[in-house]
Amino acid sequence: EVQVVESGGGLVQAGGSLRLSCAASGFTIDDYVIGWFRRAPGKEREGVSCIRSSDGSTYYSDSVKGRFTISSDNAENTVYLQIDNLKPEDTAVYYCAADKTWYSVDYVCTADYGLDWWGKGTLVTVSS
To answer: Can you name the residues that pair with 38 across neighbouring β-strands?
Structure first.
């Protein structure tokens, strides 16, 4: 069974850091595009960052560029999202999603693209 499970969310003060994890099972992340998306209260879903491990391509939205770092550990079959210098506007439920696609990571993260597999999300709350 294909599954992705997020963890690592929590309550943190502005300026702090968190590392989110997306543990994959039932497939090898190297063959997939893995993305992090977030939905803040009252806002549309935003593609935050995506990665394709097989070629190392990554995408970051302008709102997180320079503060978020996506990485993958093929041995652990896990994708991480390191979040630094957190801001209150980063407060959201963060979802991990996976899809076996040859579309670019930019397209997968920014278009209204329906990735196949989604986790249940992890809540990040940033206090000011």
So the answer is: 46, 94
Per the listing, tokens 């990485």 go with 71
Residues in the chain: 128
77 Cβ contact list (under 8 Å, min separation 6)? 23, 24, 25, 28, 29
Q: What are the backbone angles phi and psi of residue 5, rounded to the nearest 5°?
A: -130, 125
| Distance separating alpha carbons of residues 43 and 4, to the nearest angstrom | 24
**Mean pLDDT for all residues in the chain:** 96
With residues binned 3-state (H G I as helix, E B as strand, rest as coil), the percentages for the chain, rounded to 5, are 10, 50, 40
How far is C-alpha 12 from the chain's CA centre?
18
pLDDT digits (tens, 9 = 90+) for 13-55: 999 999 999 999 999 999 899 999 999 999 999 999 999 999 9
d(CA 53, CA 71): 8
